[in-house]
Write a structure and sequence with these properties.
By secondary structure, the protein is mainly beta. The chain has 1 helix and 5 strands. The protein is globular, with a radius of gyration of 12 Å. The two termini are 19 Å apart.
Amino acid sequence: MNGSGHIHLLGSDGRFLLRSQNVIVQGEGINSIFDGPYIAADQQAEIRAKMQRQECVYSEFRYQGANYHFYLEPVGLNGWYLFCANSWWGTS
């Protein structure tokens, strides 16, 4: 991730269990990846369905004028996921 990535541990519901000291999305009340308006509702539904099936998820979001991509990888324990987010490397 060339030093610009952020890795977090999530519960099966998308809530942060362990959070990197460096976060992309700032603010109070951000307790899960589904809090805040940056991931569209239809995208959230797709992500939740994949997480329930313990599938990998690759997607993207836009926050404060910047594009980011993220990857969710099931840990294989308790429905937990590694959530890796990084600045977007492609064109916007």
